[in-house]
Amino acid sequence: MSYPAASALSLPPDVRPIVWRAMEQTVNGVVVSDATQPNNPLVYVNTGFTRMTGYPAQEVLGRNCGFLQLGDRDQPGVHRLREAIARGEDVTVVLRNYRRDGSLFWNRVEMSPVREATTGRITHFFAVQTDVTLEREREEMSQVRSLELERAIGSHPMGMVTLAADGRVTLCSPAGVALLGLGDGQVLGLSLSQLLKRVATLADVDSEQLPWPEPGQSCLWELRRPQQRVIEVSASSVGSLTGEQMAVLRDVTQQRQQQASRDHFLATAAHELRTPLGSIRGFTELMLMRNYNPEQARPLLETVLKQAVRLGGLLDDLLDLAQLDERGREAFALEPVDLCHVVRQASEVIEMPENRHQLVLELPDSPQWVLGHAARLEQVVINLMSNAVKYSPNGGRVCCRVAASSAEGECTLEVSDQGIGLSDEEIGRLFTRFFRANPGGPIPGTGLGLSLVKEMVERMNGRVDVNSTPGQGSTFTLHLVRPTGQHPS
Ligand SMILES: Cc1cc2nc3c(=O)[nH]c(=O)nc-3n(C[C@H](O)[C@H](O)[C@H](O)COP(=O)(O)O)c2cc1C
Questions:
Q1: Alpha carbons 33 and 113: distance in angstroms, whole number
Q2: How many Å apart are CA 438 and CA 426, to the nearest integer?
Q3: Which contiguous run of DSSP H or E holds residue 469?
Q4: pLDDT digits (tens, 9 = 90+) for 18-56
Q5: Cα of 28 to ligand 1 centre, how many Å?
């Protein structure tokens, strides 16, 4: 066997100084150690080595190169180097080394044995050393960044799916798996069409109903299983060179439902406002066109007034609802309120036409504290009382009873009447906005009162129940929460 090292001897004499200059001028460290001596002492180090490590040649020749480790010897690279030396093999390792001033640098050492041309006996080792600190730092930084990114993607409530240039799934975040209902099924490595097919099957839809948007665009997926939901899929291209794509998945079910109920509410509100406005306009035009005497004009003016009052009531209720919707739970601050006091106050403003009704208050002697908002609670009670009066056109008893509930920490107010009552079907829709029992009948109302009652009571952490028998009357029961701890006496 012959060894290529022999060719160095055949370097033409004019090339030798060039090779020598190249060795001295390269930015890399170049070192040679004597393999025939114990401990492999260095016999040559170039200028690049001195520039890189800060050690001049005279300080290091005759020493083993391990001094660069400065005691930091337990490194996998050092072990591999030792083994390669023992076996007489080539090796490339990256080591933590220390300059003469003690500062750390990462050193890539590419080492090879130097053999005798004829016998193959190893006489020396030769190594090229490169300072790779910058590369290493960049690598570490990008590793940290991708770890952080992975963690951020993993914990982000929006789902994320990334696709390689060939359309294969390279990542599907936990939120993405949950949004698409993929369960434990493995999706990495699936092609886009396989992924869409799997989602379609699990969601019980046709895969054609799951379009994949172009980068920069988005589309909606309406999924049926495990529950009805709408997912917005927005795609973007991640690497214009690599062709990678990312899609962000967002559950927009709630927004869509809210939007639909807002649209419905606006359409109904506009319709409800237009009705009284239409009759005010119609009657006023009639009176302007005809020359009515005061007696003829009176019923028309009464209708105009009634409709104007209704319009005002509608606007008040709409504003109240808008305020509740906008401010949500913070619509009003809750404090201990004496329910008996609220009922007494409300009873003073209730109008009972033609004295056909008898308002009975059954209140305990002591204050009954509940958690609420005094003015809003009074509005709720007035609403229930005036409903009781309105829906018992033939009169009768309207009874308001405050009692400590059987449920602990609760207090109830029952408002009952002997009026026309409600059917089960009406009860089912009673608290829906704009629902009116007896629509078009003689009983005035906006259809918003009870929905306001319900929403206000819920914001006081309470609830409202109804019990009714057609032709016999209704009982509305407010369940309110008692405040804990101290309250005014
Ligand atoms: C030619 C040659 C160059 C070497 N260069 C380096 C070096 O740049 N940095 C380093 O930490 N170790 C280097 N070593 C390795 C050490 O000299 C030593 O072999 C290593 O620490 C294992 O030896 P040990 O058993 O004495 O620890 C080099 C070894 C040889 C033979």
A1: 10
A2: 9
A3: strand 463-469
A4: 999 999 999 999 999 999 999 999 999 999 999 999 999
A5: 16
Helix, strand or coil, per DSSP, at residue 43 = strand
Arithmetic mean of pLDDT, 326-333: 69
- Asked if residue 396 lies in contact with residue 230, where contact means CB atoms within 8 angstroms, the answer is no
Q: Which of 60-74, 260-274, 311-325 has the highest mean pLDDT?
A: 60-74
- Average pLDDT of span 361-369: 94
Reported residue count of the chain is 489
**DSSP conformational letter for 200:** H
**What is the rounded CA–CA span in Å between residue 310 and residue 379?**
17
User: Which residues are near ligand 1 (CB < 6 Å)?
Assistant: 31, 33, 40, 64-66, 68-69, 73, 78, 81-82, 85, 95, 97, 107, 109, 111, 125, 127, 129
What's the pLDDT score for residue 6? 47
| Residue range 285-297: mean pLDDT, rounded | 92
The residue assigned the tokens 């920069």 is: 216
Q: Total domain count for the chain?
A: 4
CATH number of residue 168's parent domain: 3.30.450.20
Q: Which of 109, 122, 124, 132 to mutate to test the pocket of ligand 1 (most atoms within 8 A of CB)?
A: 109
What local confidence, expressed as pLDDT, does residue 157 receive? Answer: 85
Question: Cβ distance 388 to 419 under 8 Å?
Answer: yes
61, 95, 364, 382 from 110: Cα distances, Å: 19, 11, 95, 91
In testing the pocket of ligand 1, which one of 53, 72, 81 has its CB within 8 Å of the most ligand atoms?
Answer: 81
pLDDT tens for 125-137 read 999 999 999 999 9
Residues 339 and 473 reside in one and the same domain: yes
User: CATH code at 282?
Assistant: 1.10.287.130
